[in-house]
Amino acid sequence: MVRVKTSGVTKMENHNYIKEAERLTEISQGIDDYYLWVLCGVGLPANIMTIVTILTMQAMTPATFFVTCLAYFDGSALLAKLVIKLLIHHATSYLNVLCVMEFIPIFLQTVANWMLVFICVERFISVCYPLKKVYLVTKRRSYICAAVVVTGFLVFFASVFGVMRRNQGLKCTMYPAFAWFWDEVWKWILCCLLIFFPFVSILGLTIAIIRGLRNSSRDRRSLLRKGSGSVTNASGHQRSSAINERQIAEAERLERTITLMMVLAAILFLVFSLPSGVYFLMPRQSDGIEYYRQFLLGQVQYLLLDTTHALNFFLYFFTAKRFRSQLIKIVCCKKCRKRFRKRNKLNTKTGKKQSLSLTEITHVGT
Description:
With 366 residues, the protein is mainly α. The chain has helices at residues 8-55, 62-90, 95-100, 103-128, 133-136, 139-164, 179-225, 234-281, 289-307, 312-319, 321-331, 334-349; strands at 165-167, 172-174. It is globular. Pfam families: 7tm_1.
């Protein structure tokens, strides 16, 4: 802290320093006190509605399984972080156990991000290798991949926190023997597992899917035009041609929607996760006004990172008409559903887009 001297200038600088530090602390504390309540109030119902809507739309497939897992871990991460925070803040006993349990929100956030990676992998195989999807992406393999990731991260985080974390003076800290590892190594491991590896994977898969869609568009159009449904007579040929043209148009609309949603998911993940990566890699300040600014940055990056677990529902709702229709069918009364169906029929007659299949939206994620 700045030392107070007798000169008027130094006293004024010290006064300004204290005033600015109090302002930054007040903002940081306000964010820390309330943002999880807001995100839980929005994200928990949203993720529950995502699970209910998806499970009532069609039978379980690898795509629906991963999307359901993503919604489950997103909601669980928000709830666990709020509960652990409240328990540590108000508890007077068993603090050592609670400090070890700090790994639970981090574990759930990491698994949620990797479920998003699995969704992108499924979309990549579906678009770039459609003929191999049947035996490459099966329900059994999907269950095994999810179980391996969940078990692996659970054992890893529980072991690290169980060995290194403890309570000291009503505050969670690490044992002195592990202080160097925690400060110099752990932040790199955590940042890579939670942010960098998922982001690089999602970005790379998104670029590959866009290229795959662009390269396969011409082949798909050619195959549809040479479909086996064509007949030799003139009227039959015209009818088959019209059907194939509609299929081509629908496939192209689906491709544009998939591309938009994949790019949107990558951009959202970048925007909301990158500040956390920058914060984790910054050298820590121990005093001065920079300490309070860094503390505020820490609260902002936690806010942005946790917000990714409440966004997926809204991406599904605003970009997938079938998801939106199914949700309205669940939550609305019978009269509202009739009115909604009438409006959909009118929109169909005027040439608006058809409903999007659920298996084409499962690349969205954080």
